[in-house]
Amino acid sequence: MGLKVGITYNLKKDFPKQEDQPIDHLEEYDSEETIEAIQEVLERDGHQVIKLGGTPEVIDRLKDSSVDIVFNIAEGVRGRNREAHIPALLEFLNIPYTGSDPLTLSLTLDKSMAKRVVMSEGIPTPRFKKVERIEDLQAIDLCYPLFVKLCYEGSSKGVRLDSKILDPSMLKEKVRWLLETYGPPLLIEEFVPGPEFTVGILGNNPPYVLGVMQIEIKGSSPHEAIYSLEVKRDWEKRVRYLCPPPISESLLKRIEEVALRAYRALDCRDVSRVDIRVGEDGIPYFLEINPLPGLSPLYGDLPIMARSMGWEYPRLIRTIFHHALKRYGFVEQ
Length: 333
Prior knowledge:
Elements: E1 4-8, H1 32-44, E2 48-51, H2 58-65, E3 69-72, H3 85-92, H4 102-109, H5 111-120, E4 128-131, E5 146-150, E6 164-165, H6 168-181, E7 186-190, E8 196-203, E9 207-217, H7 229-233, H8 235-238, E10 239-242, H9 249-265, E11 271-278, E12 284-290, H10 301-308, H11 313-327
């Protein structure tokens, strides 16, 4: 069954870096190689693929192209609802698309709101505070060490090796730097001293775990390691991805359970990646979820996980696409 498939995305090259912007300003956006890799998989399956992009011109392109469905990986441009802009437009135009809907995409980009929802379902997550101004630190009643990150960003934007905070003076210094460099809001949460895992989830009714991958930072204790921007940019030398992880079967099951519960609580669709740390108490704690996980065939965490589980890249893309096709009735359930 050949379909006319659009791909929506944002490319790094479409946003020239300004001198006053931080080094990771464009971190979430994709490379042309990723778009071409997805296009190749879809065309190999007999579909006609149209690159739609993610700039305002996409509105006219959608009207002119009459696509049957869109493979969406657009991160959006501005605001905490930016990941929802393209899916909302597609819903308005009654065009099917892959992945989660606008509400889920907005909710999960705001880490504090996502944590509130998973907490309401009894899913363990570190205690936290959302901070808009330096004065908000006076009301912090959390236990050190803490971890500070941007509330509306992904791809480790703003996360550095010094993001783990040991005392109030460190906290004030780090918060001031983040507010001045990136702007509000920030998320401050209690640091979970323990190994970090990321869980790939696919599908809908029911969703299922693709794999669980432990992220081990070479030269750092699993209890202290931070998957920071510096580490991610040098991942081939500094990171060891363990998939499946060398942990007990019972812990593996508990990690999978927390990830699946979060996926359901936040109404994710087709694909997501869930970040979890296991505390000294043995409890897997939800950190955040990414319903638009990076799909670079070279360095994306989800494709790396898929390869470790014996999946070639085309199978991963095909499976995400197939789950969307099933939701819309293009193929039988």
